[in-house]
TrEMBL record:
One of its GO terms (cellular component) is nucleus. It comes from Terrapene triunguis (Three-toed box turtle). It is found in: Nucleus. This is Downstream neighbor of SON. The lineage of its organism: Eukaryota, Metazoa, Chordata, Craniata, Vertebrata. One of its GO terms (biological process) is nuclear DNA replication. Belongs to the DONSON family. PANTHER family: DOWNSTREAM NEIGHBOR OF SON, PROTEIN DOWNSTREAM NEIGHBOR OF SON.
């Protein structure tokens, strides 16, 4: 009902304000259609607040554009730039640059322009739209919103009626907000942990193997804290199998393609500002780094002699 959506918007706004004040490092908005990751300035190599949305559709992107929200599709842009770089000849690159109007000028010179059907503005638009629709629901559809546009995104999400499912198990429920810190209207949730002890035969005796199964929304800071705990408790030797919520794996993409050279002094100031966000300083160190996993996520994490190896 209205009360639920009102209290949800209050909680959402509260979280955004905490993020802006660097008292919250990041939070998720989980809708039944897509997930949004809001990150504080200083995280993932960005000096402004960022919001990453995955997966997106043409309809959602169009609605965001209509609200004046500026965003980019980093993976689509990366593909485009790679395609241009890989053009085998300068001629191919030139053809890409020539506009649809210019490409018909040589036909006019030959006097055969009337015999060739020239694509009109509508068909050109349809072609572009087709290319855009091709990434819908895929990791490549990930959208990046930066700076003040994230506040516009907040208002857009609060007022977007389609975020609430009309039918199914989530019918009438507003999106879920997940955060490492407390916020207005939040409830404390604990992850479910189950320990299993298995005896495995080794030569003529049995060895005890202990495993810990942790289920629930395991957020990045939580995973890092667990690894620090296991590193100490298991004397630098353990392995972990991780199951990622697939649509969010793309959040590991480095969205800062063109990096502004942040001075070490500015970087240090940003780091200090984030020290009150509630995370362990070593975890914070990890989260301010540029993501390197791309569209994938860590599936297997192993530590041997205090050194990590992993598979994505």
């Amino acid at each position: 009902g209205r009360t639920t959506s009102f209290s949800w918007s209050v909680s959402f706004t509260s979280l955004y304000n905490l993020l802006k004040a660097k008292l919250c490092p990041y939070f998720y908005v989980c809708t039944y259609q897509f997930t949004v990751l809001f990150r504080a300035a200083g995280l993932a190599g960005s000096d402004v607040i960022t919001a990453v949305i995955s997966p997106t559709t043409r309809g959602l992107r169009e609605a965001m554009r209509n609200e004046g929200i500026e965003f980019s599709l980093p993976l689509v842009e990366e593909t485009r730039s790679n395609t241009q770089k890989n053009s085998e000849t300068n001629l191919a690159t030139e053809v890409n640059r020539v506009s649809d109007d210019e490409s018909f000028s040589w036909l006019e010179e030959m006097g055969v322009q009337d015999k060739i059907k020239k694509p009109d503005a509508i068909s050109i638009k349809l072609r572009k739209e087709k290319n855009e629709v091709q990434v819908d629901h895929k990791p490549e559809s990930v959208a990046l919103v930066k700076g003040t546009n994230t506040f516009m995104l907040l208002n857009f999400l609060i007022n977007c009626k389609s975020l609430v499912a009309a039918a199914g198990p989530q019918a009438g429920l507003p999106p879920t907000l997940l955060s490492p810190v407390a916020f207005r209207g939040a409830t404390m949730q604990t992850l479910k942990a189950r320990s299993i002890n298995v005896k495995t035969p080794v030569h003529s005796c049995y060895n005890d193997i202990f495993s810990l199964e942790v289920t629930g929304p395991v957020m990045p800071h939580c995973l890092h804290t667990l690894t620090m705990l296991l590193k100490s408790a298991q004397k630098g030797a353990f392995s972990a199998v991780l199951y990622t919520h697939e649509p969010t794996a793309v959040f590991n993409t480095n969205t800062e393609r063109i990096l502004n050279k942040v001075s070490s002094l500015k970087g240090e100031t940003m780091w200090k500002d984030l020290t009150k966000c509630g995370l362990h300083l070593k975890t914070l160190d990890q989260l301010i780094q540029l993501p390197t996993l791309g569209k994938s996520s860590i599936r297997l994490l192993e530590m041997r002699n205090y050194a990590y190896i992993w598979k994505s």
